[in-house]
């Protein structure tokens, strides 16, 4: 009865993904609206099982409620019970549509045919006009979009959960494979292989400096030998260059040709997701992940004085260069006011999107041109302001006139030798007055040529030099160039580029070297395995075709189950064959070392583990002896402590559970001691030792364990607390208090004592148990 009366009152619930978005939208709606955040997905496939029916109901996913969202769902259900209408205002893409469907399902309205109580709101920008207009143009959940997203999720699950265990068997447990990420890893690995196999070739150029006279005044210009006897010249080595140098010096020269051409350079279109990530990487040094995080903040809304929370840009996950007519007119008005008629085309400029683009949303642009970067900089964070200015400038520039250049080519001849000079002069900046695109490798600077050069002028050879060069290998991928390659190959979609790169970095398959992306040894080994075991699945063409199939599901040209079946048939074939080969491959990966196990005498081999390659006994599991590779062995630091077994000096070593002391006579003597930190346990008085948790994190625990379970994550300090007299303090570093000492009992924060005061009278004969 209470629920019926509440609904009769006409209340409405609006569900979005995030609190920031909820805050912005809430101020645009009336008192009858309650806005809540789902905090992303509320359901997903189960973590501990495949969660996809491969036998009876083919490819039907089994969704489960996320335990981490139980409180969120409870709040949504309570709010929905008091609402007559539930508006689903999640992002306007496949992922957002799937989130909306999952929310509707847990709230009791997930019928794909539509439930009139649940309405889908969709807007490309978070502004008052866009939000209120979307209330009048609501629809139902687009089931085709949901199925397309479901297909992506299930495909990734099938690959991840069925291929990853093969990597565990071949290398070590915990590795994972991804349907799309593994193809990106293949691109990076194969590029690195190309670079390593590249053999540079020598070549030479002859560079000259000529002087002529223009209207009686001397003028100099540089040129490169271009032709000999009317044919373009390629100089292969020093002897050939020296022979040409002799002939060139003997000639007299004159300018034989001066050709001038007008060139136009058109502005690029407004940003789409991939181009925004590329330019932010080149110009701002942002990773793809950071770009999307900052763009999401600008889209969801920032606090603007006098206006409240305002969405600053349109939706940032898009592959469309289309721009709304009202935005085009606003851009033209701004250009006219700031730059004048000479920068404004007669008509708005329109751009054609790339083939295969979904074109579901506008290009990325500011929501209002009244908020200039100068004004916005007052209330935006540093990164937000920089990215907003980039988006603003690109959007304004794309509606301006082209830049104009006067290109000049000068040929200077003497005998059979012809030198060439090219240069250009910017005669009208056009859109370059606002914005210039960045490049991955930089552009070659053209020569500065003096004005007045004309055919027939005599030229004197002032300087001549042969320069040695070598051909260069292809460049390593940067985040910008990798995104460009993925987009060009049709791999992934706007919402996936940042995640693809983040996963490769997080898994330690790829690492950054300044801006470049390099495959790690582990990444290359994983790539080689996947390409060997699954030649059909982890290839660029196949992955691009699957993206097209997902698009067909969304457009209704194909259906979910037929697409899944077409994928799974060749995948299952490769999977079955891989299962039979994995043991054989594991043996192939175990390199012989020529050394024998000191415990059982069997050969030692090289294996892979979580911390890289190591040496292990080939008799595993009967013999579990392991040791680091010789090149990975840390330098052994001798300490003032005696081995408890033989009395020899001890050295510091690192093992699975952290640092420890080992006998310097190992393997003859296998005596060990804990790595003590010189502080006694505050509970039982026994020494504290440095240890490592199962996840690799260092902590400090009592050597009396398990009788005494005292442990601390923070380094202990041998000082009593002056407040409560607790036997030890610990070292901490926080943003609030900086580096300080902290009492675990009374929580006092203390200034660390200077090193010179910590031990004013050091013991000349320290305890041998203390390193």
Contiguous helical run count: 19
CATH class of the largest domain: Alpha Beta
Bin the helical content: 25-40%
Head-to-tail CA distance between termini? 75 Å
Which oligomerization state do the chains in this entry correspond to?
Answer: single chain
The CATH architecture of the largest domain comes to 3-Layer(aba) Sandwich
Shape: globular
How many structural units, i.e. domains? 5
Adjacency order of strands in the biggest sheet: 9-10-16-15-12-17
Major sheet details: 6 strands, antiparallel, barrel
**CATH fold-level topology of the largest domain:** Rossmann fold
Give the averaged pLDDT, no decimals: 88
Uncertain regions: pLDDT < 50 for 5+ in a row?
A: 1-9, 755-771
The count of DSSP E runs of length 2 or more, i.e. the number of strands, is: 35
- Strand proportion: 15-25%
Radius of gyration: 34 Å
Give the helix/strand class. Answer: alpha+beta
Overview of the structural elements:
With 771 residues, the chain is of the alpha+beta class. It has five domains: 2-141, Rossmann fold; 174-197 and 475-586, Orthogonal Bundle (Topoisomerase I, domain 2); 202-266 and 403-470, Topoisomerase I, domain 3 (Distorted Sandwich); 273-397, Topoisomerase I, domain 4; 678-771, no CATH class. 32% of the residues lie in helices and 25% in strands. It is built from 19 helices and 35 strands. The strands form ten sheets. A six-stranded antiparallel barrel has the order 9-10-16-15-12-17. It has a four-stranded parallel β-sheet with strand order 2-1-7-8, with helices on both faces. A hairpin with a 2-residue loop joins strand 15 (403-414) and strand 16 (417-428). Helix 4 packs across helix 6 (143-170), helix 9 (273-284) runs antiparallel to helix 14 (479-489) and helix 10 (288-300) packs across helix 15. The radius of gyration is 34 Å and the shape is globular. The model is unreliable at 1-9 and 755-771 (pLDDT under 50).
């Amino acid at each position: 009865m209470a629920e019926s009366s509440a609904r009769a009152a006409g209340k409405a619930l609006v569900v979005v993904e995030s609190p920031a978005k909820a805050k912005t939208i809430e101020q645009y709606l009336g008192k009858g609206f309650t806005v809540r955040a789902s905090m992303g997905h509320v359901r997903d496939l189960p973590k501990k099982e495949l969660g996809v029916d491969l036998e009876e109901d083919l490819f039907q996913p089994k969704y489960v409620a996320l335990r981490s969202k139980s409180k969120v769902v409870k709040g949504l259900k309570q709010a929905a019970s008091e609402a007559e209408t539930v508006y689903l205002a999640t992002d306007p893409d496949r992922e957002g549509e799937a989130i909306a469907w999952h929310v509707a399902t847990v709230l009791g309205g997930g019928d794909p045919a539509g439930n009139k109580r649940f309405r889908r709101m969709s807007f490309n920008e978070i502004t008052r006009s866009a939000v209120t207009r979307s209330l009048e143009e609501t629809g139902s959940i687009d089931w085709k979009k949901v199925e397309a997203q479901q297909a992506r999720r299930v495909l990734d699950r099938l690959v991840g959960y069925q291929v990853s265990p093969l990597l565990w068997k071949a290398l070590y447990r915990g590795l994972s494979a991804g349907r799309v990420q593994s193809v990106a890893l293949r691109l990076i690995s194969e590029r690195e292989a190309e670079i390593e196999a590249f053999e540079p070739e020598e070549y030479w150029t002859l560079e000259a400096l000529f002087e002529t006279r223009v209207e009686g005044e001397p003028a100099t210009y540089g040129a490169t030998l271009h032709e000999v006897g009317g044919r373009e010249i390629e100089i292969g080595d020093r002897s050939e260059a020296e022979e040409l140098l002799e002939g060139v010096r003997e000639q007299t020269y004159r300018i034989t040709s001066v050709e001038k051409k007008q060139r136009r350079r058109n502005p690029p279109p407004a940003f789409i997701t991939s181009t925004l990530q590329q330019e932010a990487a080149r110009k701002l040094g942002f990773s793809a992940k950071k770009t999307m995080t900052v763009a999401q903040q600008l889209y969801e809304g920032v606090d603007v004085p006098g206006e409240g929370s305002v969405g600053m840009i349109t939706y940032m996950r898009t592959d469309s260069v289309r721009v709304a007519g009202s935005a085009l007119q606003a851009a033209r008005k701004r250009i006219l006011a700031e730059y004048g008629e000479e920068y404004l085309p007669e008509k708005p400029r329109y751009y054609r999107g790339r083939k295969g683009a979904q074109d579901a949303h506008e290009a990325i642009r500011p929501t209002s041109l009244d908020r200039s970067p100068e004004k916005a900089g007052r209330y935006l964070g540093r990164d937000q302001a920089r990215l907003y200015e980039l988006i603003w400038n690109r959007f304004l520039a794309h509606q301006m006139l082209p830049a104009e250049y006067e290109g000049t080519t000068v040929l200077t001849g003497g005998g059979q030798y012809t030198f060439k000079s090219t240069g250009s002069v910017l005669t009208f900046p056009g859109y370059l007055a606002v914005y210039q695109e960045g490049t991955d490798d930089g552009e070659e600077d053209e020569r500065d040529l003096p004005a007045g050069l004309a055919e027939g002028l005599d030229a004197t050879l002032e300087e001549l030099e042969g320069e040695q060069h070598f051909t260069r290998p292809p460049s390593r991928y940067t985040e910008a160039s990798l995104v460009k390659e993925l987009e060009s190959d049709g791999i992934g979609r706007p919402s996936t580029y940042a995640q693809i790169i983040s996963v490769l970095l997080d898994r330690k398959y790829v690492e950054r070297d300044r801006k470049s992306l390099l495959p790690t040894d582990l990444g290359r080994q994983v790539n080689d395995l996947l390409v060997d075991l699954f030649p059909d699945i982890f290839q660029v063409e196949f992955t691009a075709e699957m993206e097209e199939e997902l698009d067909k599901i969304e457009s209704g040209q194909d259906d979910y189950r037929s697409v899944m079946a077409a994928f799974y048939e060749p995948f299952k074939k490769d999977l079955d064959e891989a299962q039979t080969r994995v043991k054989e491959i594991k043996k192939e990966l175990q390199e012989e070392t020529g050394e024998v196990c000191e415990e059982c005498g069997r050969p030692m081999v090289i294996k892979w583990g979580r911390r890289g390659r190591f040496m292990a006994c080939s008799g595993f599991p009967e013999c579990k002896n392991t040791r680091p590779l010789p090149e990975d062995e840390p330098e052994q630091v001798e300490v003032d402590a005696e081995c408890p077994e033989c009395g020899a000096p001890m050295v510091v070593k690192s093992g699975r559970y952290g640092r420890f002391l080992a006998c310097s006579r190992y393997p003859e003597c296998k005596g060990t001691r804990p790595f003590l930190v010189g502080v006694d346990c505050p509970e039982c008085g026994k020494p504290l030792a440095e240890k490592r948790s199962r996840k690799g994190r260092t902590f400090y625990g009592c050597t009396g364990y398990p009788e005494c379970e005292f442990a601390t994550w923070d380094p202990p300090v041998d000082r009593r607390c002056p407040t409560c007299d607790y036997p030890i303090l610990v070292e901490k570093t926080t943003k609030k208090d900086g580096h300080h000492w902290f009492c675990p009992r009374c929580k006092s924060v203390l200034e660390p004592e200077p090193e010179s005061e910590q031990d004013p009278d050091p013991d000349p004969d320290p305890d041998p148990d203390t390193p």
